[in-house]
Design brief:
The structure is a single chain. This protein has 330 residues and is mainly α. It has one domain (2-323). The protein has helices spanning 2-21, 26-47, 56-81, 86-93, 96-107, 115-132, 143-166, 174-196, 205-233, 235-239, 245-255, 264-293, 313-323. Helix 1 (2-21) crosses helix 4 (86-93), helix 1 crosses helix 11 and helix 2 (26-47) packs across helix 3. The longest helix is centred in the last third of the chain and has 30 residues, at 264-293. It is globular. It starts with a helix and ends in a 7-residue tail after the last helix.
């Protein structure tokens, strides 16, 4: 039940971003999303009598993580929603595990790529070309919008590698880290939004409600559901939600917003998801081999959990922090 709830919340988030950008500029939608999410987690933090992280070094790392996972990615998704259908934005989001795997190969030298991993990356990026419909000039969709969505997925992929390397094993609770990350993201987006957009002069009810729900449920609330799912069912089960999100976002865009897609977009999505699954299995195989052949501490939890990473930035910290109790960390 929670699995379906989580997939629904995250899948509908792209529809909510679209609705938000119909009344507010993209940067304001991103700021509202992070601010409302931070407020929701702050309330839970108080109720659970937890506290925010302490230490300048930890906050610097949280700020960097927030820049990639919240500020840049949320803003880019909002900008892309102004140019392409929400269903297509959700499809582009499904490439995040590919970019996470690619970033880990570059930034984590201890992880040597397995053959299956490289094949998965190749298949996944071929799927991106199918989604784009490159043989037909992007099939009438905005190339700028699609590239922005892919840039958002890339930013998230880089951010998760950073989280894994610098925040996993910090000793703080997952709730504390998540609230801290969203607080840092709120400050970053407040500065950027204030510099590049004017204060809103009107507050359309539909768009305001969309941003509110997006922040409180799609960002803050989803964290609570995700953490409980990881705790009770394990990270592997929780990770499979990634492969349901494009289905939900596509159905929502088509049935609720009346968006239209061409055949290559869902077909390409299937290819992307196959590639993502293979790349994650490749990481799992490489991690298992490394674990069996060395006694040194691992650089982080097995990357098989990175399928969760394409779903929602704040929630992956939950699964990473949860994983720190069951995996050796460097």
């Amino acid at each position: 039940m929670r699995f379906l709830l989580l997939a629904t919340i995250w899948g509908l988030s792209f529809l909510l971003v679209k609705a938000g950008t119909q009344g507010f500029p993209a940067l304001q939608v991103a700021f509202g999303r992070v601010a409302f999410g931070a407020a929701a987690l702050a309330a839970v933090l108080v109720l659970r009598r937890d506290r925010l992280p302490r230490g300048l070094g930890l906050w610097v790392n949280l700020a960097v993580a927030a820049m990639f996972l919240n500020a840049a990615s949320f803003a880019l998704f909002a900008f892309s929603a102004q140019r392409i259908p929400s269903a297509l934005t959700g499809i582009c989001n499904a490439t995040t595990p590919l970019f996470t795997t690619l970033a880990s190969l570059v930034a984590l030298p201890g992880e040597r790529p397995a053959r299956r991993q490289l094949v998965g990356l190749l298949i996944g990026f071929l799927g991106v070309l199918v989604v784009f419909g490159v043989w037909d000039g992007t099939a009438g969709q905005s190339i700028t919008g699609m590239l922005m969505a892919l840039a958002a997925a890339t930013s998230m992929g880089i951010g998760w590698v950073y989280v894994r390397r610098f925040l996993t094993g910090s000793g703080c609770s997952s709730l504390s880290l998540s609230a801290g990350q969203l607080a840092a993201g709120t400050v970053e987006l407040a500065i950027v939004t204030g510099a590049f957009s004017d204060l809103p002069t009107r507050f359309p009810a539909r768009s305001l409600l969309a941003v509110l729900v997006l922040g409180v449920l799609g960002t803050g609330g989803a964290f609570l559901v995700q953490y409980g799912l990881v705790r009770d069912a394990g990270a592997t089960v929780a990770a499979t939600v990634t492969y349901v999100i494009p289905v939900v976002s596509t159905l929502a865009g088509v049935l609720i917003l009346g968006e239209s897609l061409t055949w290559n977009e869902p077909a390409g999505t299937a290819v992307v998801l196959v590639g993502a699954a293979l790349s994650q299995l490749g990481v799992a195989a490489a991690t298992a081999t490394a674990t069996a052949t060395t006694t040194s501490p691992a650089t982080g939890p097995p990357a098989t959990t990175t399928a969760v990473e394409s779903a929602e930035p704040v929630t992956q910290i939950a699964s990473e922090c949860h994983a720190e109790h069951s995996h050796p960390l460097g």
